[in-house]
Amino acid sequence: MSLALPGPGRARERLGRYPLRYRLWGAWVARRFTRAGWLACTSGFPKVRVRNLGGVLEAGNCLFFPGVRLEVGKGGRLSIGTGTYLNRNTEVIAWTEVSIGRDCMIGWDVLIMDTDQHPLPGRDLDNRPVRIGDGVWIGARATILKGVRIGDGAIVGACAVVTRDVPAGAVVTGPSALTRGSAR
Q: N or C: more exposed end of the chain, with fewer CB within 10 A?
């Protein structure tokens, strides 16, 4: 995944799409990132929250809506590609690694996490990376769990619970995220 920033002409064009207050709030939020392009945060409550507990948090030019919550654990890594937007109340929790590609559209109330956040009794904590390819659409209230890889151009339907890999261009829906066809 590339976080490369577009040339000055494209950056100016993208920035022109958003009011100054979105860009100013985005600059304020970007302070908590290890590396960030131009972030825009739409107005509304609750505000975007970023909790970095000692990991790496990178983003290209992105748009965040109210209620987005990003959390990176110690030694974790969260990367969000240019052109991606995270809609209202999306939560991304990265204790190992979560990588979101370029030009992804992530719907309302989506949960993406690479950890269970606590171990089961008598077991170690099992964290596994999550990788989301370029141009992926994730519908409202979908849940993407640890160890999942979603291929480029895939579509994850609303309320899907994704526990296994999704091939590039596939459409998955339902609580068991069954493959229903191809996006191409």
A: C
Which of 80, 110, 85 lies closest to 97, judged by CA? Answer: 80
Which DSSP category does 120 fall into? P
Q: What confidence score (pLDDT) does residue 182 get?
A: 75
pLDDT of residue 93: 98
Peptide bond into 121 cis (omega under 30): no
The answer to whether 94 and 74 are in contact (CB under 8 A) is no
Q: H helices then E strands: how many in the chain?
A: 2, 20
Q: Is 118 a catalytic residue?
A: yes
Over residues 79-87, the mean pLDDT reads 97
pLDDT at 127: 95
Sheet with 77-80: list strands edge to edge: 35-36, 56-59, 77-80, 97-100, 130-132, 149-150
For 8-182, CATH number out of 2.30.30.100, 2.160.10.10, 3.40.50.620, 2.60.120.10 equals 2.160.10.10
For the chain, the domains span: 8-182
Tens digit of each residue's pLDDT (9 = 90 or more) over 88-119: 999 999 999 999 999 999 999 999 999 988 88
